[in-house]
């Protein structure tokens, strides 16, 4: 019996990747349930409210003993406490979670660059609106989020986003820089000099032994056009 | 010196209202800073990163002693622990927060019904896209969220969303039913019979002594078309 069961869509990085990175860096014993033979059925059952307790609204969710925790930032807070991946003081805990929730906000906005009208319409059926939304995202929102994160990192000394050692927030920053560079390579290249601190943090996280091993493994699903970060050249700068 | 200073936009309910409701139900000593004479300047200064610690990305944020906490759900979690407005067990704490984050997700989607393309464009400049997004919201997303919350309430016995006494989640449900009924009166009326539990919960919260007193006071800002829940008849069912 593994310590954790992670439930998330089996063919994308998506929001679940933020949890996978934390589990991998922690060296935790986990199974990515929906990628096993009978896992999708088990996930859909729990999503349908078949569990004994509070049902999740959507994946990802994490089973840890009898606890079932949903919402990405909530899961990261839980894992952060248990695996030393978050500061312990009140200012540190609530601060790390504040940053985790700001990451979650950015994820919604990245998703909506390709799905501005409805999540259940095809991209092709909302392409004109997607072009307008992506242009606004690249011009205003992406610089606002990344400028904020760069400022937080710099104010904290440049090595970690919060506290004096690695936290789940640093792992999430790695994923954001990787994802935005995949989705919007031209826009990210143009502004590379503005986010030097975040790019260096991305590189440091990428080369941590457990993260490097994870990235080289089949457990890391490649970016693709079913996920949150999608590369549609017509939406890039 | 009040116990808490709340920083939020002074002319709308918005996300800050979820915090105001918790502070009011707790009977907490707080000041709504941006509604005081020099408050807006103080808020903009902290938003610009002038504080000694982690800057907020956006309002609302709460000052409690030397702690400054941003992100609505994060603030509610903090107040919930301190004022008995959340269960104390792990399952209860993480469960309440999971629901708080699902409320936050719904808020984003409600906002995007009138601003699907860009937050910095006028509604009038994205009206056609807003009509499509609002139609999808009313047809698919609103029933999905409300159906989920109704199911959670019913599974927990029908009186409270989680645990065996009032929590901040119940206060947030009051606000969601009030807000959606303001923004989409026809859509909400059509489906009234599906959300009987949530409507009864709304009424119970509304008549709690401290909430009733708050609603009758000038501290409660009326709904208006600058907030998250806006009544544009052309976006209703």
Low-confidence stretches of chain A: none
**Overall strand count of chain A:** 4
Can you tell me the CATH class of the largest domain in chain A?
Answer: Mainly Alpha
Strand content of chain A: 5-15%
- Average pLDDT confidence of chain A is 96
What separation lies between the terminal Cα atoms of chain A?
47 Å
- What's the overall geometry of chain A? globular
Total domain units of chain A: 2
Largest interface: A-B, 47 and 47 residues
Oligomer: homodimer
Describe the protein in words:
In chain A, helix 1 packs parallel to helix 3, helix 1 crosses helix 6 and helix 4 runs antiparallel to helix 5. Chain A has 9 helices and 4 strands. Chain A has 2 domains: 79 residues, Glutaredoxin (3-Layer(aba) Sandwich), CATH 3.40.30.10; 146 residues, Glutathione S-transferase Yfyf (Class Pi), Chain A, domain 2, CATH 1.20.1050.10.
What labels describe this entry?
homodimer; 237 residues; alpha+beta; Glutaredoxin; Glutathione S-transferase Yfyf (Class Pi), Chain A, domain 2; 2 domains; 4-stranded mixed sheet; 9 helices; 53% helix; globular
């Amino acid at each position: 019996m593994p310590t954790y069961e992670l439930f998330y869509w089996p063919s994308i990085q998506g929001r679940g990747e933020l949890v996978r990175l934390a589990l991998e860096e922690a060296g935790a014993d986990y199974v990515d349930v929906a990628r096993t033979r009978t896992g999708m059925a088990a996930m859909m059952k729990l999503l349908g409210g078949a569990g004994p307790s509070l049902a999740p609204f959507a994946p990802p969710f994490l089973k840890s003993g009898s606890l079932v925790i949903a919402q990405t930032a909530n899961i990261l807070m839980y894992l952060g406490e248990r695996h030393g991946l978050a500061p312990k003081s009140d200012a540190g805990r609530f601060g790390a979670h504040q940053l985790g929730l700001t990451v979650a906000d950015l994820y919604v906005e990245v998703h909506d660059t390709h799905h501005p009208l409805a999540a259940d319409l095809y991209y092709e059926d909302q392409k004109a609106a997607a072009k307008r939304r992506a242009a606004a995202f690249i011009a205003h929102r992406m610089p606002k989020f990344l400028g904020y994160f760069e400022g937080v990192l710099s104010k904290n000394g440049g090595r970690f986003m919060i506290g004096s050692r690695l936290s789940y927030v640093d792992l999430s920053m790695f994923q954001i820089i990787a994802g935005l560079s995949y989705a919007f390579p031209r826009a990210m290249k143009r502004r590379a000099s503005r986010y030097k601190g975040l790019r260096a943090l991305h590189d440091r996280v990428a080369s941590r032994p457990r993260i490097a091993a994870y990235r080289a493994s089949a457990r890391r699903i490649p970016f693709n056009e079913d996920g949150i970060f999608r590369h549609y050249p017509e939406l890039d700068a």
